[in-house]
Write a structure and sequence with these properties.
79% helix, mainly alpha, 278 residues
Length: 278
């Protein structure tokens, strides 16, 4: 029983020595988490992975799509120029047709009507003069044959011819007068109406040509806009993705700059050595 305090003192001394040695060496038992190691491994593998053939094929398709979009834009421009030129030509043709119809109608009213009426009036006047002369000749023949003695057969023949000529002249005068009335009352009005209808149709055709030209211009502008947008989309799809700033967002393709501690090693920077204490 006398040796019991001595044994307790020896045990405390041994524990104190063991604790002091561990503190003086500065070694800690804290290990680096394994989650950081597992997260760094896929990043380095992804950055070092080679380009796949499928990615190269996809990139070639995008480049070809850009070339096709450029060609389609050039085709759209040529089609737009051709369509606009055709529409402009149609408008010009409609304008010329309208001007021609207007000029024809104006000429008909101012010149043709007067000429035809004068010609018809002259025909009536000639027929009247011919009638007058025929009547005078017949009267002269009748007086001559009454004053002198001729053969009865010759007398009847001459008078019959004079009467027939007078009758023909009367009919000719009546025909010329009816032609004049036909010209005034129907023919000129009909032709003026027809020219008016042609003028109306020409005006409508001109308006339709102008509307078609506007529609063509809008359609071609829309086609060019779509072609330009398609080219822009194709160029954006084929362009490489710009790298983000390392200060704002991490890039998965870049390798980590620091060395990843091996499993089981100690983090010397994270842990501060314990001070050697008593």
């Amino acid at each position: 029983m006398k040796h019991l305090p001595y044994r307790r003192l020896s045990l405390c001394a041994a524990m104190f020595l063991a604790t002091g040695c561990a503190a003086s060496s500065g070694v800690t038992t804290t290990h680096t988490p394994t989650s950081a190691l597992t997260e760094a491994a896929p990043t380095e593998a992804t950055a070092s992975a080679p380009t796949k053939p499928e990615d190269e094929l996809e990139q070639r398709k995008k480049v070809r799509a850009v070339e096709a979009a450029r060609l389609e834009l050039d085709i759209a421009k040529l089609a737009a120029d051709s369509a606009r030129a055709g529409a402009k030509a149609a408008v010009g043709a409609a304008e010329r047709e309208l001007n021609a119809v207007k000029a024809e109608r104006e000429h008909f009213k101012k010149v043709t009507v007067a000429l035809e009426l004068d010609a018809a009036g002259l025909g009536v006047d000639r027929a009247k003069q011919s009638l007058l002369e025929s009547e005078q000749e017949l009267e002269e023949l009748q007086r001559m044959y009454e004053a002198e003695t001729f053969a009865e057969a010759t007398k009847e023949l001459v008078l019959a011819r004079g009467k027939a000529r007078l009758e023909m002249v009367k009919r000719d005068l009546d025909l010329e007068q009816r032609k004049l009335e036909q010209l005034k009352g129907f023919e000129h009005k009909k032709r003026d109406r027809e020219l008016g209808e042609r003028e109306t149709k020409a005006k409508l055709a001109l308006e339709a040509a102008k509307s078609a030209a506007k529609k063509t211009d809008l359609e071609q502008r829309l086609a060019l806009t779509r072609a330009e947008h398609a080219l822009e989309d194709a160029e954006r799809a084929a362009s490489p993705v710009p790298k983000t700033d390392s200060k704002t967002a991490p890039n998965a393709d870049e390798k980590p700059t620091g060395k990843t501690p091996a499993p089981g090693s100690f983090d010397q920077q994270a842990e501060t050595p314990a001070k050697k204490g008593g």
